[in-house]
Design goal:
With 158 residues, the protein is an alpha+beta fold. The chain has a four-stranded antiparallel β-sheet, with helices on one face.
Amino acid sequence: MDRFDLALLNAVQRDDSLTADQLANQIPLSPSALARRLRKLRRDGWIARTIALLSPRLTERRLRAIVMLQLNEHADQRGKSALLRRIDAVPQIQFCYELTGTFDLLAMIDCSNMAEFNKVVEDVLEIDPVVRRYETSFVKRETKFAPFVDLLASEPTP
């Protein structure tokens, strides 16, 4: 992967709807070369998927919660794996990270209302003996959402 690929990945992270012609205004390669590189980056798995991010105008009324989970200290791998599979299968759980420290997992739950949130928590967390306890904080407002990794910033300088 060269600096052109990194620049291309940076560009599509910010806006994947750009055409090859528009990308060529940012990256000094021909549109056809950029299109070929983009297809190769997708085929080789460097781009996991392309999604559309909804406007806060559509999502601001939704109930979002950050849930920190602490697992039982004697939780076996099979039980933990089953919990993670259940978490993965629930569409309201938008992401889950494994952590170090006091809590073992952090999850973002997005629901239309409190009843839906309660059902998700009851069906996924409260029934599971692997979950020792959990703490929930509700999102008041989004102040920043920038899932961008600057690949060129970490490139060694010549």
